[in-house]
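Let's do one together. I've listed all components of the complex below, 486 residues spread over two lines.
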Amino acid sequence: MKNKIYIVGMGPGKEEMMTVEAIRALEQSDVIIGYTVYIKLLGERFSEKELRSTPMRQEKERCVLCYEEAAKGKQVALICSGDAGIYGLASLMYEVGADYPETELEVIAGVTAASSGAALLGAPLNHDFCVISLSDLLTPWEQIEKRLRAAAQGDFAIAIYNPSSRHRPDYLQRACDILLDSVEETRPCGYVENIGRENTVAEVCTLKELREREVTMFTTVFIGNSQSAAAGNKLITKRGYRI
Amino acid sequence: MKNKIYIVGMGPGKEEMMTVEAIRALEQSDVIIGYTVYIKLLGERFSEKELRSTPMRQEKERCVLCYEEAAKGKQVALICSGDAGIYGLASLMYEVGADYPETELEVIAGVTAASSGAALLGAPLNHDFCVISLSDLLTPWEQIEKRLRAAAQGDFAIAIYNPSSRHRPDYLQRACDILLDSVEETRPCGYVENIGRENTVAEVCTLKELREREVTMFTTVFIGNSQSAAAGNKLITKRGYRI
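Okay, and this is what the predicted structure of the assembly comes out as:
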């Protein structure tokens, strides 16, 4: 029988925002591997598991560690925040897995920040939408800019991941400037910080105001489409029902 | 104190693919309201709740029913498949809610088909992506076509919802033809049927082959970006790590 590694999306952080099957996969595992921050978010109930982490930017090493531990006969779970298949390690695990044909993978879907952040803001993604990361660690900025322009061109609602970091404090401003080439300044937008953790923030603002906001690496940003409206502190993208 | 209605994303169908807080919200509710198909997917353990449904195309009536039941002092949960904020009833509930200022809403995020379908196919959405519905019930076809072209232009991976129905059996073919104007015939694609239910199907194929496939209203379709690859029966969209 083949070894199997679970690749588990843990959602935003709180255990109650995990799916039942994600929790079950962690319970059934001998060793849980992940980025340090996510390992720390796991509750007390997993403290008896063997917990292993590798630092940021050592993603390939983290994947290799999963396969090596599985080869020892242990049941391994790799945890990712949100959904493992959305900017998580699912694809890298498949790529690295070419060297480990005796091991199979099971991806267990989780709630990504587009969904969990949207829930806090109201319904900003309730029609066709794009998800775009502003991190240019692995993607040339020209590609990111091209996608922002295409998203505006298609009148998509947009969820923006990784809008800022210490090394790129002005990237959200740059993205807003690109969008402002074709989108009006008053377009309803919003952002959510620390979803499912302490000090959660959910704010609605215009695109022009968004450009001036300071955000962190724990912020998810939402840009409305031409049918979106702010209603109090909620951002609603209409589906088109007659009401 | 205000009444509160829970708007619950139930994920693809199986209870184990619901989040813990979604299950808890249903447990705490007196009445669970939803489209007939989703009400039937609920397990035995909710059979003692008051279960109410309205047929398809009576979405506004379903929302009004929620507010009316809440006004009687009952705890109401409205269930939607996948995530309530992604082609679900969250935005319509906010719109209808303008007439019911005494009631507040809490959206509880769920796993949408883009995530649950991707998990079955491998990692097709592991970089920037778009979600587009082919249903033209509430959206003019010209808008859908514009978004498909913009998604191809931006080299997004794409998840397509509602690719077909009895009244529009050829819509996926039409969408593929639009994409084929700018995307090569061999582009890796895939589709998933009946996620989290019986007779789940997950298939990888090329864009040209996808055009000929028969799909149903329970199919979710995935189009790779220029960096996607088929590996056996998996569809992998690379993030750009050096391996």
